[in-house]
């Protein structure tokens, strides 16, 4: 049987020298307030974060990447 590579989107937040990882922008914004990261959910979602275009402000950096997991075999 052929193994399928599993890929998932990861949102990486760098805040005050700490690193946090989320499955979506919504999950990030559910855990950190607008006051903590300097931007609200709708604005961050509309920004259109990509691997080549991270979001940066004076509070944080938000990057989008791909988590590659081990192949799933059946």
Number of domains: 1
Structural class estimated from helices and strands: alpha+beta
N-to-C CA distance:
7 Å
The topology string of helices and strands comes to EEHHHEE
Strand numbers in spatial order across the main sheet: 2-1-4-3
| Number of helical elements | 3
What composes the largest sheet? Answer: 4 strands, antiparallel
Low-confidence stretches: none
Estimate the mean pLDDT confidence.
Answer: 91
Task: Quote the beta fraction.
Answer: 35-45%
Overall number of strands: 4
Overall 3D form: elongated
Helix content: 10-25%
Radius of gyration: 14 Å
What does this molecule look like?
The chain is α+β, with helices and mostly antiparallel strands. The protein has one domain. It is 24% helix and 43% strand. The protein is built from three helices and four strands, in the order E-E-H-H-H-E-E. The chain has helices at residues 25-31, 34-37, 41-47, and strands spanning 4-15, 18-22, 55-56, 60-72. A four-stranded antiparallel beta sheet has the order 2-1-4-3. Strand 1 and strand 2 form a beta hairpin. It is elongated, with a radius of gyration of 14 Å.
């Amino acid at each position: 049987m052929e193994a399928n590579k599993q890929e998932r989107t990861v949102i990486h937040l760098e805040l005050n020298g700490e690193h946090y990882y989320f499955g979506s922008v919504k999950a990030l914004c559910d855990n950190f307030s607008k006051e903590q990261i300097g931007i609200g959910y709708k604005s961050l979602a509309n920004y259109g974060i990509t691997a080549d275009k991270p979001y940066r402000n004076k509070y944080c950096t938000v990057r989008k990447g791909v988590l590659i997991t081990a192949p799933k075999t059946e």
